[in-house]
Amino acid sequence: MPAPNPTPATVSVTASPAGRECAVLLVNLGTPDAPDTRSVRRYLREFLGDPRVVELPRALWLPILYGVILPLRPSRSAKAYRAIWTPAGSPLRVLSDAVTAGLGAALRADAPELTVRLAMRYGNPSVASVLRELRDAGLRRLIVLPMYPQYSASTAASVFDAVVDELRRWRRVPELRFIADYHAEPAWADAVAASIREHWATHPRGEKLLFSFHGIPQRYVRRGDPYEDQCRASAAAIVQRLALPDDAWQLSFQSRVGREPWLQPYTDETVKALGRAGVRSLDVVCPGFAVDCLETLEEVAMQNAEFFEEAGGEHLRYIPALNDRADHIATLARLIRRHGGGWPEFAPHG
Ligand SMILES: C=CC1=C(C)c2cc3[nH]c(cc4nc(cc5[nH]c(cc1n2)c(C)c5CCC(=O)O)C(CCC(=O)O)=C4C)c(C)c3C=C
Ligand SMILES: [Fe+2]
Ligand SMILES: [Fe+2]
């Protein structure tokens, strides 16, 4: 009798003879190619033209997008991008590349044939272009990991759309696994809590800790988006690890666009209210962002710091995203190992 096939503890996708590639595709939001108005306009046209991001009838939204947003917003956004741009490029791109390299190295130890690649949902390198390169190398199995700890249709489902839009054109589609979110991974909350503790060990500790997540319209939550619940659960898991009393922390949502109500309370109003209420020092952490980007480095660390000071506060200290921290990479590697387990052996003539 053959021994029963045990569930492998490590990535079974590794059992892949040459020419039958297994890959992890990390996908982040994307960012402009350069911090100038033209590049930002091109990026925003693709981003805000996605019906997963702006859920309005096209006949209503496209005239606003092309008539109001694209003529006006890009020059303002380009200025914000210039404030955070690095010699190596946009922080979102540079840091996502660093996570991809780190994850590739971490997985190579036990899964040497697994390729780890990064694509951007909007801008470059596009999901389609990276998938085609993988196809040309013989892609047979694919694990897609959107770089968003919490699920929203506006982010994770949009990544799913982009992957499927490309795969549906292929003759031979790969076997596919899609990781919808990972905020419930205990190691993820451990890593965020550790990053906060380390910040407190090297900087003065603020009177309060604010968890600021990117917002979405309330309408999306009413339609069934689990995002708000997942943000609240994320904060609760981190608070529990830090053993914070209720009055030591708050949660808010940032980056609202347009006039309809988004998830509340809003971050800008919250930091202003805290400053007015006599809070002198405030720490802000943004656990919805896997890596730092415009929304953390400019909107929180610059704009909201200014709002806080204008309202009477003295120090708003931004606690960086997990970026390429070793515990972040280890968390993602574990996630991939678990989602990559249990795949059957390749058939001899596949
Ligand atoms: C208009 C609708 C938007 C929705 C819905 C939305 C959801 C959403 N976005 C992120 C993550 C990021 N957003 C970033 C920038 C950004 N977001 C919007 C709009 C929506 N986001 C705009 C218009 C912009 C562009 C910048 C600007 O012009 O102000 C970024 C940063 C990109 C970078 O290059 O650094 C990230 C990351 C999440 C997680 C989310 C829903 C949960
Ligand atoms: Fe956004
Ligand atoms: Fe913003």
From TrEMBL:
Its biological purpose: Catalyzes the ferrous insertion into protoporphyrin IX.
UniProtKB keywords: Cytoplasm, Heme biosynthesis, Iron, Lyase, Metal-binding, Porphyrin biosynthesis
Residues reported in the UniProt entry to bind Fe(2+): H214, E295
Pathway where this protein functions: Porphyrin-containing compound metabolism; protoheme biosynthesis; protoheme from protoporphyrin-IX: step 1/1
Organism: Chiayiivirga flava
Catalysed reaction, written as an equation: Fe-coproporphyrin III + 2 H(+) = coproporphyrin III + Fe(2+); heme b + 2 H(+) = protoporphyrin IX + Fe(2+)
MF (Gene Ontology): ferrochelatase activity; metal ion binding
Localisation per UniProt entry: Cytoplasm
Family label: Belongs to the ferrochelatase family.
Taxonomy of the source species: Bacteria, Pseudomonadati, Pseudomonadota, Gammaproteobacteria, Lysobacterales
UniProt GO BP: heme biosynthetic process
Protein name as catalogued: Ferrochelatase
Top-level EC class: lyase
The enzyme's E.C. designation: 4.98.1.1
Gene3D superfamilies: 3.40.50.1400
GO CC annotation: cytoplasm
